Amino acid sequence: MAKYAMYGPLAATVMYSWIYEDSYKHPWCVHILIICALRGFMHQLWNSYNNMLFLGNCRIKQQGVEFKQIDNEWDWDNFILLQGLLATMACLMFPSMDDEFPIWNTKGFITLMLLHVMVSEPLYYWMHRFFHGRYLFTHYHSLHHSSSVPHPFTAGHATFLEHLILSMVIGIPIMGSILMGSGSTSMIYGYVLGFDFMRCMGHSNVEVIHGAIFNKLPFLRYLIYTPTYHSLHHSDMGTNFCLFMPLFDAMWNTLNRNSWQLHNKITSNSGENGRVPDFVFLAHIVDVMSAMHIPFVNRSFASIPFSTRMFLLPIWPVTLMILLMMWAWSKTFLHTFYNLRGRLYQTWVVPRFGFQYFLPFAADGINKKIEEAILKADRMGVKVISLAALNKNEALNGGGTLFVNKHPQLKVRVCHGNTLTAAVIVNEIPKDVKEVFLTGSTSKLGRAIALYLCRRRIRVLMLTLSTERFQKIQKEAPADTQNYLVHVTKYQAAQNCKTWIAGKWITPWEQSWAPSGTHFHQFVVPPILASRRDCTYGDLAAMRLPEDVEGLGSCEYKLERGVVHACHAGGAVHQLEGWTHHEIGPIDVDRIDLVWEAALKHGFRPVFQP
């Protein structure tokens, strides 16, 4: 963020003129700031469009953008800052720039387009070809080609030398028109933003120009390139060097002969755009702020664990309005995807907030959305669909039982994934622990954890006000281990226990009863507040994905990179094992070890080591 301080002198000049002077002495300062902001916004819009997987776009490459590429392209906007500084230097060198340009000048536009076609296009073409020479490619241009999946931000991923040359390419038509006395404000804005638009389009992984247009007007294919056209340059680097006009590739015999065929194939949906996922994780929106933690809002932000960011606060009201509109009209949508051993795994999102799951009047509508998603997955041929967080709430749909009972003919396996969640929690507990304190002890997960631990001869202090529910669970335990389940009704009962398992929200005051050195394991959503400095807090039950996962470029809520919630991993294991049963309703305690061993066998790894 510190690099943006370089805009400070321009902003200070504008503020000084606005406050202390009758008119702007240096109007170009305002224009440079506005143009730089619009250029950044242009790239963000293209980023959003590229990552809106739910639009069913014609994707060129089916792979996902991985964390490594995101990190490499993190400072994609450096070229905007550089060109802003170069523009500032040009304005200081030419005092005539202090004069206000007319809004429109037809002669200027004609001059600019002639200079672009006759100078910028061939200049870029030949410089691009030179950069594919052995030395220049190895030391400079290979950085740009290191991005395996094209993305609008890839356009800005290059070396300083390349940015300087591109600045010259974009600057020649503008400065030429101005020096000929035919410059205008609309010409500068239009050319710079149009230049960025074309660059973003060319590096997009989504084809936006339908093949039918070129079939009806064949000459256009030589005047404007397409994302497919430029993608071939990244896969066959000896072809398709042009800036925006394939005419120059045709002139100098570097036009890839497969350009038009591939373009027609992709836009006619005859590629792999309709691939059916093997597994779907059905999530939901947590809250307004976390709703911005998605790739089509901010790719960089989505690639790191979620936390509240101050720079997102200004767009909070806009996000809220969009989410309210989604509540009224939106359907379940595709959020992210990754590949694992040739299988496609996707995350779909039910457009509902976390708090809505606790509104009685919203229950039927939420269940309808979940049911529609399950039936859609069934029609598509998805093998397993796993319900995340509140989508499997017992009070809402019995952990998925409602849908399976209503549609007994389902081919897709419905899975709550909580068996692996329970397995993760019990395996986090050190082997030498003899006693644990469990809140939410009569919930689905609480019951399974208590029954499992008592079999290991671990004393479980089960916090619940319901003697009836406690006794029901106690009777499920083997007769010789029932005495390891202890009914408690107050937090004071655990003041000597250093292993707490939070399945229900624990306030800071309630946490105060825990002795110093206590570790809080948890499966409560949202996680409890870490209010004790002398205690440690575990994250929600989660597992690290296998190392051979591909195309993963976003974090799952607050979890670190490559880590997913245990219920997500549980559904994936269900699919990898080829199990044919539905995992719904109460957790089968006898399967906890089986599911855990299956997860480890497939390369899933625990995040927390006891």
From TrEMBL:
GO cellular component: membrane
Record membrane topology: Multi-pass membrane protein
Organism superkingdom: Eukaryota
Chief place where the protein resides: membrane
Entry's transmembrane regions: 164-192, 310-329
Gene Ontology biological-process entries: lipid biosynthetic process
Gene3D superfamilies (UniProt xref): NAD(P)-binding Rossmann-like Domain
One GO MF term: iron ion binding
Localization annotation: Membrane
Keyword vocabulary terms for this entry: Membrane, Transmembrane, Transmembrane helix
Fatty acid hydroxylase domain segment(s): 114-254
Domain Very-long-chain aldehyde decarbonylase CER1-like C-terminal span(s) in chain numbering: 436-606
InterPro entries: CER1-like_C, Fatty_acid_hydroxylase, NAD(P)-bd_dom_sf, Sterol_Desaturase_Related
Family label: Belongs to the sterol desaturase family.
Official protein name in the record: Fatty acid hydroxylase domain-containing protein
Organism: Gossypium raimondii (Peruvian cotton)
